[in-house]
């Protein structure tokens, strides 16, 4: 493939030659990824791939109105660029006025690494994990799992001279262990695979499987429940995805206030919890600018290249901000707020083990699965527990219990939480394919709603 920088230059040159658009934005993403799978205590497959997506966005200005055409291609051949530009300009000419129109962003300095090569990864990155897994394969538990590493380099260039570049590393390791009909899961996120604690993951899995030597059947109901960071991440990520300002202003979401307006300023919990996104969060760094091939309620093609800063969505237990691209912020007289590709929440000081030790009788979750929205007006979610729900009695885990279907709202969980443990980097189980960068505390919920017993194993 020709370099992404060349794609940008050719596309912008072709846009000027055709001259049917007032502004042009080019977004090129080069992705290199590698993966490793294992099953039944045997390595099974590994592979590497390289891909590119190119998006050309043409904007035609007509007084206060702007018309947008966005065309995307995964073809890597240089010959497709001219056709992509022509199709984008034709789409803009035929498009209705865009509701998210905003002024063009000014050009700026070209990043120092703009012309550098694309970082690469390969199966060798899994060397340490594979070595430690090989020792685990000789143990008593049967192991299954998957590891992946991706390097995604995004270039943004506009006809106004704006230039942005960022390489996003994304990695994860997920291990399932089985013993005597019981199953347990452990997962971690990683940027470079130098920090994957495979040995301690295997020890944790062995401990959970030993808890399942005794099993107890429990009915549906409300139970004091300890949610570890992975399960909290799954619920809070869905909350973040639902914090669009437009939907709340129009009364369509759980963040809409009765009688109009939004719930910004409402106190959710007496716990001093802050939920935020921050592109520069140590260890969870992500793109510090907007890269939007198409517009949505929470992002706009007109904002491509716009700086993303830290946003406290909930601050000290109070709803503090909702997501607004520039056009929506102007329409609703609200501050521009853009979500970074990570999510963090502060917590307390207690470890998960200390929270277990302080439990007289309750449940310990391990992961959540198949989460779906039931009622957007209150953000009620349903889903299943998976790979281990455990009974805690007098500060000790004493048995595994059956799986449940749950019905809960992340907003209501925050309202009812009575304790938050120490915040730690975690991998959400349900949303781990899309959202690997999270730091969450454990939460104690006094009356978590297990709505029915599930036969899922």
TrEMBL record:
GO process terms (BP): proteolysis
Alphabetical list of Pfam families matching this protein: PmbA_TldD_3rd
GO MF terms held by the record: metallopeptidase activity
Metalloprotease TldD/E C-terminal domain segment(s): 221-451
InterPro entries in UniProt: Metalloprtase-TldD/E_C (IPR045569), TldD/PmbA_N (IPR035068), TldD/PmbA_sf (IPR036059)
Identification of the protein by name: Metalloprotease TldD/E C-terminal domain-containing protein
UniProt source species: Mycolicibacterium vanbaalenii (strain DSM 7251 / JCM 13017 / BCRC 16820 / KCTC 9966 / NRRL B-24157 / PYR-1) (Mycobacterium vanbaalenii)
């Amino acid at each position: 493939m020709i370099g992404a920088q060349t794609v940008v230059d050719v596309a912008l040159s072709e846009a000027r030659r055709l001259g049917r658009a007032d502004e042009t934005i080019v977004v090129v993403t080069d992705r290199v990824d590698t993966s490793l799978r294992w099953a039944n205590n045997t390595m099974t497959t590994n592979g590497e791939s390289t891909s590119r997506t190119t998006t050309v966005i043409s904007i035609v200005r007509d007084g206060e109105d702007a018309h947008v055409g966005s065309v995307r291609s995964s073809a890597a051949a240089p010959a497709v660029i001219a056709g992509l530009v022509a199709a984008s300009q034709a789409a803009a000419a035929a498009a209705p006025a865009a509701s998210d129109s905003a002024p063009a962003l000014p050009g700026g300095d070209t990043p120092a690494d703009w012309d550098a090569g694309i970082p690469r990864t390969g199966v060798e990155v899994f060397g340490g994990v594979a070595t430690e897994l090989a020792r685990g394969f000789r143990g008593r538990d049967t192991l299954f799992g998957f590891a992946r590493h991706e390097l995604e380099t995004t270039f943004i260039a506009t006809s106004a001279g704006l230039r942005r570049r960022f390489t996003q590393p994304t990695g994860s390791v997920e291990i399932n262990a089985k013993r005597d009909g019981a199953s347990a899961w452990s997962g971690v996120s990683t940027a470079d695979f130098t920090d994957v604690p495979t040995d301690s993951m295997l020890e944790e899995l062995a401990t959970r499987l030993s808890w399942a030597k005794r099993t107890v059947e429990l009915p549906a109901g409300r139970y004091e429940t300890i949610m570890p960071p992975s399960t909290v991440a799954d619920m809070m990520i869905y909350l973040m995805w639902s914090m669009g300002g437009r939907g709340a202003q129009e009364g369509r979401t759980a963040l809409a206030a009765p009688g109009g307006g939004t719930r910004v300023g409402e106190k959710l919990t007496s716990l001093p919890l802050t939920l935020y996104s921050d592109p520069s969060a140590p260890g969870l760094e992500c793109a510090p600018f907007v890269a939007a091939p198409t517009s949505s309620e929470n992002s706009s093609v007109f904002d491509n290249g716009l700086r993303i800063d830290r946003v406290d969505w909930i601050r000290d237990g109070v709803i503090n901000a909702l997501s607004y691209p520039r056009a929506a912020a102007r329409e609703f007289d609200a501050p521009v707020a853009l979500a970074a590709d990570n999510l963090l929440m502060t917590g307390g000081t207690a470890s998960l083990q200390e929270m277990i030790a302080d439990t007289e009788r309750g449940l310990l979750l391990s992961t959540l699965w198949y989460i779906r929205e039931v009622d957007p007006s209150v953000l009620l979610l349903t889903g299943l527990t998976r790979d281990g729900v455990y009974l805690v009695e007098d500060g000790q885990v004493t048995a595994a219990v059956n799986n449940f279907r749950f019905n809960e709202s992340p907003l209501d969980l925050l309202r009812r939480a009575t304790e938050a443990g120490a915040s730690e980097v975690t991998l959400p189980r349900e949303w781990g394919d899309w959202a690997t960068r999270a730091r969450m505390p454990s939460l104690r919920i006094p009356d978590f709603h297990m709505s029915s017993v599930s036969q899922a194993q």
